Structures are given as C-alpha cells and as structure tokens.
Amino acid sequence: MSYLRQRLGPALPPTVVLLTGLLLASLPVPAQGATPPRRVLFVGNSLTFYNDLPKMVSGMAAAAGLPLSTEQVVRGGETFERHVERTDDGAPLRLIREGRWDRVVLQENGRLAAAGDPSTLPAARQLVDAVRRAGGEPLFYMTWAYRDRPETLGQVHRTFYLLGSELAAPVAPVGEAWRLAREKHPEIELFDPDGVHPSSEGTYLAACVIFTLLFDLPPPEAQEVIGEEIARHLREVAAEALALYPQPFDPG
Q1: Which of 66, 88, 140, 222 could form a disulfide bond with 61, CB atoms 3.0-4.6 angstroms apart?
Q2: Cα(237)–Cα(231) distance, integer angstroms
Q3: Phi, psi of 42 (to 5 degrees)
Q4: What is the layout of strands, in order, in the sheet containing 137-141?
Q5: Are the C-beta atoms of residues 123 and 154 closer than 8 Å to each other?
Q6: Does residue 129 fall inside a structural domain?
Q7: CATH code at 10?
Q8: 155-171, pLDDT tens digit by residue?
Q9: Structural domain for 218, as ranges
Q10: Residue 14 resides in a domain
C-alpha cells in the first residue's frame, strides 16, 4: 500500500468528498511500483523561483537517497499563456519536447488563478499535451491566495481542480497546505514581506507537498532550511493537506 493511501484517515466531509471525487474520477492511476522520477522540469514564475523550490525538492530527494535532476523555466509574472507563446531557445514547449522529463510541474500565475482567467485552461492543455507527447507526466502546482486577498482561495482551488479534471492530471494542493498551516500555526510566517511570494518556510511547505506527490514518500526529516520544530509542523500540515485531497497512486 502506498504512503499516500496509508495517510487517508476517517471519512471526509461531504463537500470535500464531492470536490475530490470530481477530480479523481478523471485522473490517471499510476501502476503500483511505478519508477520514481529522475528528471523533473518546473515551469512557472517567481512563486516557483523564490527560495529555489526546485533545488529544495532536489535536496529532499538527496536526503532520501533518491537521484533527482531538476531544471526550471521561470520568469517573473509569467502565465501559462505567455509560456506557450514563447519561441526562443528557452521556451518551455521546446524544452519539454527535447528534455525527456519524467515529470513537469506546472505553476500558473497566482493572480490569474485567483481570477479564474479563461486563458488558463487552453494554455495548460497545450503544455500538458506537449508533456505527454514527450513521454512525461504533468503535475499542477496549486498556489495560494495572496495575504491581502484570502477570499480568493476558493477560486484558486476551483481553477486547479478544473485543470486537474479537464486534463486528467494530478494537482499538488499547496494552497490548501498553506491554508491549514496559517490556521493551525499562525506563528509560522509563510509569506515574504511583500505578501505575495513565499518565505523560506512557505517554499519548504510547497516542497513537502510536491516531493510527496513525486515519490509517494514522506519528506525526509533531514533539512537545513528552517528550524527543526517548524519543519516538523509543516511536514505534518503537508500530509494533512494531501489526505484531504488525495491522489490515486494505489488503485487498491
């Protein structure tokens, strides 16, 4: 039985079951014992490159004894639509076609996700199609509501669940993990002073969620990014968020 399957606890509230069911009904179910990813590309903007999220995920993999190479295609404020419109040598679609990536982590502009922008789905579809044609699998990175706009989190959730259900792709519920962390541990500052980007703690929490979805393993305890007690709290929150919004690693 997979780590994520073991994390699932008591029955979820009906509203959560409904949202989760809508997403999971159309998601692919990886085979048991699937080969862990060795090459992962991150496509996004400053919400990804702040504190170097890809490097943090690589560090977790190294601490767990797992070989992992990561690269990133990121620009400040970039959107899925602008990513697919690029034609330069570093264009995401070009790198996806040529890079032989096992997984591609896709992060939309936070403002557009919070607004339910109509450009998101068609652009995401182009990215996902390119990933699959190249032999990889996509993973959507759900971000958070900005500090001064907490009421937008519901739309952020809806945006990423739409992407997951329409494109049959898993979603890393980082925004939900942030919500839980701010509720349970308000003393932990997840935001950079600008109220938009993540602090080191915020990036660590995102890395915990993404690492678990990539490897179906809990994040290793060994880390040198933040305080040990804070890291433990954030690992627990990440596990809770993943239990609320499970991914179907194990068909049994």
Answers
A1: 66
A2: 10
A3: -105, 130
A4: 69-74, 39-44, 103-106, 137-141, 171-172
A5: no
A6: yes
A7: 3.40.50.1110
A8: 999 999 999 999 999 99
A9: 3-244
A10: yes
